[in-house]
Amino acid sequence: MAQTSIEFPRGPAVAAGGGTVRDYLALMKPRVMSLVVFTALVGLIAAPGDMHPVLALAALICIAVGAGASGALNMWYDADIDGRMQRTASRPIPRNRVTPEEALTFGMVLASFSVFSLGLLVNWLSAALLAMTIAYYVLIYTIWLKRRTPQNIVIGGAAGAFPPMIGWAAATGTVGLESIVLFVIIFMWTPPHFWALALYRCRDYERAAVPMLPVVSGADETRRQILLYSLVLAPLGTAPAAIGLGGGLYLTVSAALGAIFLWLAVRVYRTREGREADTAAKRLFAFSVLYLFLLFAVLLVEHAFGIRLFASGLTL
């Protein structure tokens, strides 16, 4: 696939600074943070063995803070293009409520606190994975890939796939096959998820000179790539059942969700004109969020409630 390099001037943003608590919370991308914490929680709960509840809570707080650090550092670096995109123009830096320098300092403090706290309180493997996740998101995706190649979200998407592995490592001190499978599911889910968004936000990315796939290769190639990734993702989503991480409920739900995901991807591939094309992309984007949430929610239910039922001597 052809790649491109787009140079975009990074002029200094002028901001009054002194943002409110709400502004600093917005810097942490709370919606993204919630998905990170949830998938990390599933990795932690699904891992073998028992973890003290206080340590488990500490681990999740550290992971949440680390995710917030990534968001703040991303907004610091992308302040120039955020101001040119309708989707991101209301963020604190483009609206002159927080200066880039304040966002950078805030992000660095959060990153240092989260990594060292997780290492001291839980274990250093999970802390190392958290540090790698933050560095990967900021250095590899945000600074290196995002403005240079349409493969930005493919390669950079690995950053969002690490949380269940971090949760697993926090609980066990190891990285198991099961956590790697969860990583791969999120990794393969990320491109069709974001490319669906990019299809109906294409002009936003053009205006900001971000080489997302629809901007560089066109909408038809993007639809083809979404379908190809969906063809892999649909059966891959059932893999936890094959390795014993998920049970019968998970197998049933993941197969049904995968079929719906694939059906919506086919609709995106076939619908290429007018508002109907945007509607098809929006539906896939919205469902993709629900898809990932439900996959991990079923794993959480199976492991959390299954462990309690077994501990009480009951059988299903």
Task: Write a brief structural summary.
With 316 residues, this protein is mainly α.
How much is the average pLDDT? 91
**CATH class category name of the largest domain:** Mainly Alpha
Overall geometry: flat
Proportion of strand residues: under 5%
- The rounded Rg comes to 20 Å
Q: List the total number of helices.
A: 15
Q: Can you say what the CATH homologous superfamily of the largest domain is?
A: UbiA prenyltransferase
Number of domains: 2
Share in helix: over 70%
According to CATH, the fold-level topology of the largest domain is Tetracycline Repressor, domain 2
CATH 2nd-level architecture of the largest domain: Orthogonal Bundle
The parts where pLDDT drops under 50 for at least 5 residues are: 1-15, 307-316
Name the descriptors.
single chain; 316 residues; mainly alpha; Tetracycline Repressor, domain 2; 15 helices; flat; disordered N terminus; disordered C terminus
Could you please describe the fold and organization of this structure?
There is one protein chain. This protein has 316 residues and is an all-alpha fold. It folds into 2 domains: 19-173, Tetracycline Repressor, domain 2, CATH 1.10.357; 176-316. The protein is 73% helix and 0% strand. The longest helix has 38 residues, at 274-311.
